[in-house]
Amino acid sequence: MDAQTTFIIGIALVTLLVVAAVLSVALNRGPSAGPVTGSFDRRAAKAERAARKAAARARAAASTDETGSATVVLAETPEDTEPIPDPLMERETISAEEYGVNRRMFFNRAILGFFGASLGFFGLASLAFLWPKLKGGFGTPVSAGNIDDLRAEVIQSDGTIKPKPIPAAQAWIVPFRGDVSKSILADVADTVIVGAGAEPGIMAIWHRCPHLGCRVPECLPSQGFECPCHGSKYNFHGEYIEGPAPRNMDRFRVTIDAENNLIIDTGTIIETSRAPVKSVAYPQGPSCL
Ligand code: FES
Question: Which of 43, 219, 252, 253 is the most exposed place for a label (fewest CB within 10 A)?
Answer without folding.
Answer: 43
